[in-house]
Every structure is written in structure tokens, then in C-alpha cells.
Design a protein that fits this description.
Helix content is about 50%, strand content about 15%. With about 550 residues, the chain is of the alpha/beta class. The strands form five sheets. A five-stranded parallel beta sheet has the order 2-3-4-1-5, sandwiched between helices. It has a five-stranded mixed beta sheet with strand order 12-13-14-15-16, sandwiched between helices. Helix 1 crosses helix 2 and helix 13 runs parallel beside helix 14. The radius of gyration is 27 Å and the shape is globular.
């Protein structure tokens, strides 16, 4: 398996302070008799492992907690069980000062060291080893979790069990692994469980159906990209010795969408270029950096995309996943994909569900789309027909990639100069009576004809659009308050439109009292997050980042 990037630890860790705070509150709670298990869900390489390891390093010196980290990727059941038992014993012995720093972590050695102070725990470990030898995996899986309880009773410590990629428990040769784990979690009141998974849909299904517990249920936290402020701070901190113009900085932030893996990959290349004397990042050398990462042999991001997609196969001869993905670079319905490809509905839905699970495609209402700007560029450029000949020079082909990327950066510059009202009008013009999930409800985004713009006041502008019925899009250029909603309502009333549908767009955010009042006035509310997702679906990038 290729490791595209190691988890970030120590001083390299950045942001995520709100989630760390929540995990620390859970760690304190377990010691005070209150248990709040947590599950982190997010796409691959978004930073879940780094976050968990950062938390564990923070509590490693606790005199009450036993932190145990287990990553289930490419791990057999035997490896999992032995590692689980060894790490619990090791940390318990370390807490009791019964082990020296350089002593062996091997399970047999730990059993010898622990047999006098943790006799019941050692007996359980020996029993589990016998069950594994006999290939009685069901009983071994059930009993291995009991070590939490027995060791906690013998040591007085509180185990903190971290299962990274917990949804891979289903790959073990065990019947009903999640039901067994759920039963253990219910009764193990002195053990804190922290789970993570990159299988976003499957993990949620497990948590809602198989680990939905009366006692010890899970708080689910979605791990996404850095927010705009965090991404800007990350880039500034990691490139403080490099001269980067505001325009190039904004392109990097918008292009990556704040994804830590993309940002880190570009930053590493920037530092490599700097070692060759490039202290200032220009459009030309940024284009080369991105081309190397996405299209050159061995490019880190290209390898990630290629290897991720290699797990998805089509049953149609001569068709691959890229043929489907090219249809998804713009918002599309299932029926539209079917009309352009020779593929059955069942097969298409299977592929789309796989892409959704991997986080490569997004869905809202009836629409599917690739909303990741980096992945979208990779699809568009990779799917272009290229005139290659037997005598072609590879360097020339590489230069073409860089040239295409340079054109896209220049296009971004021109888009960036557009005012917010013009960007919103272009967004509205893209709607085609599409169903889209906004403000926790599926809404129909109306297809409109004539569009007009007018100022309501210095804080708000009004976009009127005529489709099947009159639509009013009120865009606020400040955080919307309850008073603002009253003002907007009265100004619209004066205009005397006949029962218009009013959409209140709040790209600078909206407070809760304002939301409640807007709903009473029958406004549709589009929050900052809603608008960002609309831009990602229809324009391929979040226009609110920069």
C-alpha cells in the first residue's frame, strides 16, 4: 500500500482546536463518571489520524488514562488482537513504572512482566491466545474486549481505545462484529471509545443501526477541510520564508478548498523549488508544481486518485470509471448520465455509491457532481484526447499540462475580479429546476429567464428573476441579524411583487434569531455553507474562499 503522507504530529499539527477540545472533554468525563464516546468521519487523507494521534500525545502523560491506538488498515484479526492486548499491557506497566523505556513490546515479554501485578489480565490474554490458535475467532473477538474491564479493575486506570478505520472490523472472520462490540461498549462504563472512518456512508450506517446504543452511544463529528481562515493560516505558517503574491495565495486556497493533503503536497513542492533558488512563486512555477503533482509519473496526488479509483470496476466492456466521471464535472442527474453512456441503472448506481463512499463525488437532492476542484481538474485534463506519436518527447507533453494549468490560473484571476453580485447572478443562471439540499430540506432551484439587479440599501442587493414564478434573491453583504430581516421584509413589501418566492442569501453568516424570523416570513434561507456548496456544484470551486 502506498502511504501518500504520514500522519502529522508534534509541532507540524495545525488547527482542529474545537475538535481537540471536545475529545479532551470526553477524556475528562470518563474520569468523572460521565462517558461520551466519539466517532470521527471524513474522507481519506483529511487529517483524522493526525487529529487522533495529536489527542493521544496530549493525554499520554496522564496518570489516570491508558491511551491505545490501533489502525485497522491492512491488519489481520490475529494482528489486531495481539496488538490490542500488547498495547494495553504495555501502557499499564509503563504507568506503574514496571517497564524501562527500551524494554521489548513483545506480548510474551509483557506477560512475564505483568503476571504478578495484573494476574487476571494475564490469564485472559493467555485464554485469547489459545482461542486464536484454535481459530475460534468469534469467542476470541468477544473476550479480547474484556481486557479493558479486567485491566481497569486491576490497575485503576481508564482505557482510551482508538480504532482508526473501525469500519474494517467487518473484514475480520467474525460473525456480527459490530453487535458484539456494541454489547461490550454498553457495559464498559470506564472505557472511552474513539472511532474513525473514511467510509462515510457505511460508517454512518454502522453507527446508526449497529452501534446505536442505549448507553455509551456515539457523538459523530464530521472532519472536513480547513475553513478559509485555517487554510490561510496554514499556508502562511508553512511558507513564511517564501514570497507568494495575494493572487497566487488565493488561487492555492480556492483550488485546494483547504484540503490538508492538497495543501501539504503543494507546500512540499514549493519548498523543493525554493531549494533550487525559487524564492518567489510565480504563475509559471506554480503551474509546473501542480502539473508534477497531478500528471507526472509518481505525482503524489495523481497516485492517490489512481489508486483510489482502481477499487471501482465497471461491468461494461470498454468502459472505465473515468467515462462516468467526465459526466460529473458539472451537476447531473442519473437519467442524464444514462442517456450518454451504455450502462444499466443498477450498474451506474453501484458506481455512484462507490464514488460517494470514497468522497470522490458529492450528491445533493437529485444532483451528482465532482465538487473537489483538484479532482475535477485531474478528470478534465486526463480525459482530453491528446495527439501523441511514436517519436513524441515526454517533456513536451509535460509542458502542455503546465500550460493548461497556467491558463486556468489566469482564468481564476479574471473570475476573482468579479463582484459578488455578478458571481451570484452567474450562479443563479446555472439553475435548471434542479433539486438541491438547502437548509435541511430539498429545494427546487428554479430555471430563470430575465435577471435584474438593484440595490435595496448599502448592505443588501436584490436580484429579481422570472421563471415559472417571480423569484427574489436578497443578498446581504454583512452578517444578517433579526433587525436586518425586518428591514428586508419591509423593503420587499414596498416593491409590491405578487406573491414572490424570496431567497435570503447570507454569505457573511446569519444569527439564530434572524433565521427564526426569516422562516416566519417564509423566506428560504441560504447560509454561507449552502452558498459554498452551490458554487462547488455549479462552478467547480468555492467562490467565498477568496
Amino acid at each position: 500500500m502506498i502511504h501518500y503522507v504520514e500522519p502529522v504530529v508534534g509541532k507540524e499539527f495545525f488547527a482542529r482546536e474545537d475538535i481537540l477540545k471536545s475529545l479532551h472533554e470526553s477524556a475528562k468525563g470518563i474520569q468523572d463518571g460521565y462517558r461520551r464516546n466519539t466517532a470521527l468521519i471524513g474522507s481519506g487523507l483529511i487529517g483524522k489520524s493526525s487529529l487522533l494521534l495529536r489527542f493521544l500525545s496530549n493525554i499520554n502523560n496522564s496518570d489516570k488514562l491508558l491511551p491505545v491506538y490501533l489502525n485497522l488498515k491492512n491488519v489481520s484479526f490475529e494482528e489486531f488482537a495481539y496488538n490490542f492486548m500488547a498495547r494495553l499491557l504495555y501502557h499499564s506497566l509503563k504507568r506503574c513504572k514496571q517497564l524501562k523505556d527500551k524494554e521489548s513490546h513483545e506480548l510474551g515479554h509483557l506477560l512475564m512482566a505483568a503476571k504478578k501485578i495484573f494476574p487476571k489480565s494475564c490469564d485472559l490474554v493467555k485464554r485469547v491466545k489459545i482461542l486464536i490458535t484454535e481459530k475460534n475467532y468469534d469467542d476470541a473477538f468477544s473476550e479480547v474486549w474484556d481486557l479493558n474491564v479486567i485491566l481497569s479493575a486491576e490497575s485503576g486506570y481508564f482505557p482510551v481505545i482508538v480504532l482508526d478505520e473501525f469500519s474494517l472490523l467487518s473484514t475480520f472472520p467474525v460473525k456480527r462484529p459490530y453487535q458484539i462490540l456494541g454489547q461490550k461498549i454498553m457495559v464498559q462504563k470506564k472505557t472511552l471509545f474513539l472511532l474513525s472512518s473514511s467510509c462515510r456512508l457505511y460508517a454512518r450506517e454502522i453507527l446508526s443501526k449497529k452501534l446505536s446504543l442505549l448507553f455509551g452511544g456515539f457523538k459523530v463529528i464530521d472532519i472536513g477541510a480547513f475553513n478559509p481562515q485555517e487554510a490561510k493560516g496554514f499556508l502562511r505558517t508553512k511558507c513564511e520564508d517564501v514570497i507568494i503574491s495575494n493572487e497566487i495565495r488565493d488561487f492555492i486556497l480556492t483550488f485546494t478548498g483547504g484540503h490538508p493533503f492538497y495543501l501539504s503536497s503543494i507546500i512540499r513542492k514549493i519548498h523543493s523549488a525554493r531549494s533550487y533558488g525559487a524564492d518567489r512563486i510565480t504563475i509559471k512555477n506554480l503551474s509546473l508544481i501542480i502539473a508534477e503533482l497531478l500528471f507526472y509519473p509518481g505525482g503524489t496526488i495523481a497516485q492517490f486518485f489512481t489508486n483510489t479509483l482502481s477499487s471501482i470496476h465497471t461491468a461494461v466492456p470498454g468502459m472505465n470509471v473515468l467515462d462516468i466521471l467526465i459526466s460529473l464535472v458539472k451537476p447531473v442527474r442519473v437519467k442524464d448520465i444514462l442517456s450518454k453512456n451504455i450502462i444499466s441503472t443498477t450498474e451506474l448506481n453501484r458506481i455512484l455509491n462507490s464514488l460517494l463512499e470514497l468522497g470522490m463525488v458529492s450528491k445533493s437532492g437529485a444532483l451528482y457532481s465532482v465538487t473537489d476542484a483538484v479532482f475535477r481538474m485531474w478528470i478534465e485534463v486526463k480525459s482530453k484526447p491528446r495527439n501523441l506519436c511514436f517519436g513524441f518527447i515526454p517533456q513536451q507533453e509535460r509542458a502542455n499540462y503546465a500550460g493548461e494549468i497556467e491558463e486556468r490560473i489566469v482564468h481564476f484571476y479574471s473570475e476573482r475580479k468579479k463582484s459578488l453580485d455578478k458571481r451570484i447572478i452567474e450562479l443563479i443562471s446555472s439553475f435548471n429546476d434542479d433539486q438541491f439540499f438547502i437548509n435541511e430540506r430539498v429545494r427546487v432551484l428554479p430555471r430563470v429567464g430575465s435577471i435584474q439587479l438593484k440595490r435595496l440599501d448599502h448592505n443588501n442587493f436584490l436580484i429579481t428573476a422570472k421563471g415559472k414564478k417571480r423569484c427574489l434573491f436578497v443578498v446581504s453583504q454583512k452578517e444578517v441579524t433579526e433587525e436586518d430581516v425586518y428591514i428586508i421584509f419591509n423593503k420587499i413589501k414596498v416593491l409590491r411583487y405578487n406573491k414572490p418566492k424570496v431567497m435570503l442569501l447570507a454569505p457573511m453568516d446569519i444569527d439564530e434569531p434572524a433565521k427564526l424570523l426569516a422562516k416566519q416570513k417564509q423566506f428560504w434561507i441560504w447560509t454561507k455553507d449552502d452558498i459554498a456548496r452551490l458554487f462547488e456544484f455549479y462552478k467547480g470551486y468555492n467562490a467565498l474562499i477568496a
